[in-house]
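user: Here is a favour to ask of a fellow structure person. I have my own habits and do not want them to colour yours. Could you put it straight underneath, so I can go through it closely?

assistant:
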Amino acid sequence: MDMLSSSSPEPALRIRRSVPAKSMLLYRQNSANACPGCGKSHWLVGRVMAQCAFCETALPLASGWRFEGLTRI
């Protein structure tokens, strides 16, 4: 039986939302960070960004540098 012709009320594709739509996506140290792309939690953390080790989704660090010109905000 093919997924598109099934009589189930569920859509064929499911969209996973691990965070509310209007929240700011940031990598926060010392907390559980699920990837918004794949849902896994293995991260490569740099000075400014954290990158998911599985799907390569990049998030800015909550405690990282934010540049506006040459000053730190």
User: Anything to note?
Assistant: The radius of gyration is 17 Å. The chain has no helices and five strands. The chain has a mean pLDDT of 75. The CA atoms of residues 29 and 62 lie 8 Å apart.
